[in-house]
Amino acid sequence: MQITLIPGRELGRDLVDRWTELQRSNPLLISPFFAPEFTSVVAAARNDVEIALIQEGGEVVGFFPFQRESKTIGRAVGHPLSDYHGVVCASELVFDPLELLRACKLVAWDFDHLLVSQRSFQPFHQFREFSPIIDLSEGFDRYLEERKSSGSGLRRPLQFMRKLEREVGPLRFEKHVKDIAVLHWIMDKKSEQYNQSLSQADLFAQEWIRNTVETIFQIQTPEFGGMLSVLNAGSERIAALLNIRSSNVWHGWFLGFEDRFASYSPGFLLWLKMAECASRLGIGYLDFGKGDQLYKKRLMNASIPLACGSVELPSWVSFRRGAERKLRALVKSSPLGEPLRRVMHRSRRMG
Fold first, then answer.
1. How far is residue 302's CA from residue 320's CA, in Å, rounded to a whole number?
2. Comparing 2-130+306-329 with 138-283, is the CATH topology the same?
3. Are strands 88-89 and 59-68 parallel, antiparallel or unpaired?
4. In CATH, what class is 2-130+306-329?
5. What integer is the mean pLDDT of 82-106?
């Protein structure tokens, strides 16, 4: 096995075709975040994206895209926008993650949405979570029937749907709108949420993130692109969701809704309309992305296991990082943890 490192902006047509071939051959890599287009868009927006080509017998058998957070620390390409990551390869490929890091000139690679199914990385998992999905393999009617009978709390939001139609106007779902002003409206809504949060900085204050999201919104190919779905009631826009999609998956990315309609559960209703539309078009599943929000719990009927952790080579850097993780865990468990987080949040905003 040989590993060659190339800049992300030098991913040529032949390599894109091979990447796409490997992705299609592995059903576990169906997410649009594994598409070469995602890495190419991020690489165009920032200059620290690199790709490790894993070769056997002169043939490329795997792609490992990443970005450098520092000279020797790597993260998933597109972090924190990437909701799935790992090596794009055939499902049976086995490799040494430490050898991969050495070839990439890294001492650590951090991951927070790694497919658990990539067995080579399993010794480096620190904990596991899951990404909730709506599996539409049996059709929308069967899905809706199962959710109602499961006691998931679906009946009340359906009442909200009827109430919204009575009080505001008939519902109208648009699968994709091309108006970039709607995308900017979502970004503004998310920025408001981030600025009120104690745990997350405003993503859209970063130029490369805005550029990446806007570029993906404009891409429209059968295999990859952005999809801006909108739910209207009468003449009112209730909610809008930017998805990133592949040929068989719609992955929810950024959701915005009008605050005055919050009591109607607008995001919930939009997802339900999306599921109905996706089923008619033969889409396999909708992916919510990680999170335990109530609407995800009510709507999900399956999930994809993900892992968080870090691959680290023995070094002073990994020793220091291990000590920092222990300190963060100690602060988190301390009664002073929440006040300290508030102080750090205020400091970030003032800076």
1. 38
2. yes
3. antiparallel
4. alpha beta
5. 96
